[in-house]
Amino acid sequence: MSNNYVELSNLSKVYPTPKGDAVIVKDFNLKIQKGEFVTLIGHSGCGKSTVLSMLAGLNDISAGGIILAGRELSGAGPDRGVVFQSPSLLPWMTAFENVMLGVEQVFFTAGKQERREIVEYYLTVVGLADSMDKKPAELSQGMRQRVGIARAFALKPKMLLLDEPFGMLDSLTRYELQQVLIELWRKNKITALMVTHDVDEALFLSDRIVCMTDGPAAEVGEIMEVNFPRPRERKAVMEHPDYYRLREQLIEFLEVRAHRQPAAQAGPKPPVAPVVSPPQPPVEKIPPSADAEKFSKARLNPA
Ligand SMILES: Nc1ncnc2c1ncn2[C@@H]1O[C@H](COP(=O)(O)OP(=O)(O)OP(=O)(O)O)[C@@H](O)[C@H]1O
Ligand SMILES: [Mg+2]
For ligand 1, atom 25, which residue shows the shortest CA distance? Predict the structure, then answer.
């Protein structure tokens, strides 16, 4: 029996346009193991979000298919948690109510107290223990994204799909949220596919990095294994003897090999620089986990 939890087979996306069919993604093949963290990296416009949105069931598949946990996917479902660049929260609801909205739909057989505990737990784990009753307008962008992450995990999906979830955040907040995400992923053992532009983010988070070729007809170019020990500390990862070699390899793919195209469609392409954040000092302080620990202790030993 196959160990693959997710299988994208010859996945293709074609948009009809007045000038004929635009083939965005063609024969995209990828297998993901249960519990794996895979990132998808490639130039802007190559088709990363297109692949992710087909997997989320938010975009029709033109050809090929996707299997998740032994079942062929058709349409969206709560078995896939999605986190986008901005979390589209309902502005008239508090952080708590925004997360509860999905939890009520997915865990409709659970008791009110149990649902409440799920929402409080995930909001606490992402560091929002003191802000659950705030509305989105009263939260910073980073805090809103924490709500989005809490919401995705609270639904206990089979798979997590993230499309540049930290793309709009400053680098310090991004580092903090990467840490929050990877801790949650590790504890929940959720299979994850995340789109990113950022090579350092990909190296810090991933078990494997899937590099996509440029479009049209984008496909998997190369797959890089990232074997840094887990749990990962940013400082240790950056000091790992393989770090700069892998980083160079990724940048070289993006600068050179990503431009490979099917002969029939080859044509001049403007070079697009990959996003490479300059190496930064590691963020040592991770308040969310401390909060979460306090929260769990309080739950286990109520006063
Ligand atoms: N509805 C549509 N009709 C025609 N072309 C589309 C449509 N939606 C997306 N595209 C094209 O598909 C290509 C891939 O888009 P996609 O959003 O997947 O890229 P991406 O790799 O996620 O880019 P970015 O990194 O900038 O987010 C783009 O060239 C885009 O113009
Ligand atoms: Mg995109």
Answer: 44
DSSP lists the bridge partners of residue 67 as: 7, 72
- Return residues with CB closer than 5 A to ligand 2 (ion): 49
Ligand 2 centroid from CA 86, angstroms: 12
For 20-67, write each residue's pLDDT tens digit. 999 999 999 999 999 999 999 999 999 999 999 999 999 999 999 999
Q: Whose CA is nearest to atom 1 of ligand 1?
A: 15
Domain ranges of the chain: 4-300
CATH class of the 4-300 domain in this structure: alpha beta
Question: Model-level pTM?
Answer: 0.87
Please give the DSSP secondary-structure letter assigned to residue 214: P
Q: Which residue would you say has higher pLDDT here, 25 or 303? A: 25
Instruction: Give pLDDT, residue 125.
Output: 94
